[in-house]
């Protein structure tokens, strides 16, 4: 078990609508006690807001493309 403050879902930054995976009832983001953010939400914030959001937090990045790599690097540089 890993305890994190929030999850960043990186599944398609370059579309018009965030692509969120589907889950069975009671097994999705609603059961997580922390914050779930899509990459598109982070990219809509200014740099100071992003820095404040991820500073000194335990974060899990879900995804495996450019946005996931970019956000992982940003999280690592701040923390």
Question: What is the topological layout?
Answer:
Elements: E1 6-9, E2 35-38, H1 39-44, H2 47-54, E3 59-62, H3 66-78
Parallel strand pairs: 1-2, 1-3
Keywords, please?
Flavin_mOase-like, FMO-like, alpha/beta, single chain, FAD/NAD-bd_sf, N,N-dimethylaniline monooxygenase activity, 3-stranded parallel β-sheet, 79 residues, flavoprotein, 15% strand
In short:
The protein is α/β, with parallel strands linked by helices and 79 residues long.
Word description of this protein:
The protein is an alpha/beta fold and about 80 residues long. The protein has 3 helices and 3 strands. It has one domain. The chain has helices spanning about 40-45, 45-55, 65-79, and strands spanning about 5-10, 35-40, 60. It has a 3-stranded parallel β-sheet. It is globular and about 35 Å long. The mean pLDDT is about 85. Keywords: FAD, Flavoprotein, Oxidoreductase. Belongs to the FMO family.
Radius of gyration: 12 Å
Q: How would the global form be characterised? A: globular
Instruction: Provide the spatial order of strands within the biggest beta sheet.
Output: 2-1-3
Strand portion, in percent? 15-25%
Unreliable stretches (pLDDT < 50, length at least 5) are none
Largest sheet: 3 strands, parallel
Span from first to last CA? 21 Å
E-strand count: 3
Task: Tell me the helix content.
Answer: 25-40%
The figure for the number of domains is 1
- Please tell me the overall pLDDT: 85
Compute the number of helices: 3
Order of helices and strands: EEHHEH
Quickly give the structural class. alpha/beta
